[in-house]
Each structure stands twice: as C-alpha cells, then as structure tokens.
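Question: Send over one sample?
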Amino acid sequence: MTRPVALPRWTSFAACCAVLALAASACGSDDTGDEATTTSPATTAPASASASLAGTSWNLASAMTEGSSAAAVGSASLAFDADGTTRNGSTGCNQFGGTYTQSGADLTIALGPMTLVACADPAAAAQEQAITAGMPQVASFTMGDQLVLQDASGAELLTYDPGLAGLAGTTWTATGVNNGKQGVESNAQTGLATATFGADGTISGSAGCNTYSGSYTETGDGGLTISPLATTRKACEDALMTLESQFLAAMGAVTTYSIAADQLTLRDDGGAMQATFVLAS
C-alpha cells in the first residue's frame, strides 16, 4: 500500500515567524546494465566579499545559538537568485523564502513565508530560531571559502559552506514520484529509482525495474529539459512496473529543478512537483 507524501502547509510572514529565502530536480537493449556510480558534486566557487551573491547556493555550517557557534544540524541551505529573491532556503526543519538586497559587501534580507513542520530535535529547533532571528539582522557578508553573514557590528550570525551549483556530476535517489493522480507519493519501492546527471549532458539510472539513459539540458535560471529516455526491457513485479511507468512519465514532464542542500525537486511547467530526490552518498 502506498502512502502520500505529506506536503508542507505555508503561512504568511505575519502569521508565522517567517524565514528567509526559499528553501532554502526509444527503446534500449535487453541488458540491465550496471548501476550508476555516484560522482563528486559541483559546488559554488568561492568569491571575494565584493562579488555578487546572485546565482550562488550554500549549505549551513554553523549558527550563533545562545551566544556561541553551534555546528549545523540536518540539511539547512540558502540560495540567491539573480532577481533578488532567495530560494531553496531551509532551516533544517522548514523551508522558507524571501528577498535580498546587495550593495558591495552590504546585505539585507527580508523574510518571507515558511513551512510549519515541527522541529522534534531540540538542537534543530534552536538552529531554526537562530536562522529566523538572525536573517533580519544581516547587514553585511564576507564570501571566500565560506559565506559569513554578519550583523551591523560585524559580528558573525550564520556561516555557510558552498552548495551545489548545478546538476552536472551528481547522483540522486528518489524520495517521491508523481503518480499522475494525487501528486507525489512515496512507498517501499520509490528509493529504487535513481538519476545520475553526467558532466557530459547525459542522464542515466534505474527507473525501478529497468535502467534508462538519455540526455538533459539545464539553464542558469533553474530550467531543465530531459530527452525521451531509452530503457532496458526486463519484466518485474507489478509494483515495480507501476513505479517505473510513473517515474518515466514524471521525468518526461520536467521543465524546472531546484536544489536545497541535499534535496532535489523536479517540477513541470505548471509548477507541479514531478519527483523529489536526496543526494546519493
């Protein structure tokens, strides 16, 4: 039996302690082929403090919590779009959105809407509070091997490591697939679907039963197109064949992607989620 993936509820900034930038995707031979191998992900290149934040993506390394620096808990991320919005923001528990303004090394961040998932881990809850409280205090930043967000006095608020800059060279394991009816869902077979995005523009992986291959093209604004995928022709049990059919249909509908820390979301041109993934280790 399948169970629907729970999609987060959103609230306005006034209603919930908002948070920043949105956290924070033919036929073949009869051979099944080898499983795709994980490759090293590309990361955002370090830059000087005067460089533009636009188009960069970051993963939380530490946050000032109760007067001391605490190492990041879970997958907390932050990305800056060229249009002045923050996207794919995550506190480790919840996703958030917002806007930012940069002038040289000066930076202000306006908090936007945030999801309302409870942080069961006290350390994760403290981290979320540090992020939500710290973002409105940001006045400047430095950017080198890490991105450091500072308040008006120059004190460190949040420190981030470079995040993924794109899909090339990454391998992912599915956590949810659009079933064509109720939306994205997850079940015991979902994790058998994978996707490896080669640096040469090829995509390959397992669709659940059979392996597949094709090509992809991504654009700097999060656009993504995937060619019709060629698969092997092995027959499997009904549950796997159902997953495979849904997965291939979902991949064929993809037009955009977003990455938040180690999470990849693929959507169609109407914004509907088609598949979600976690970065393979």
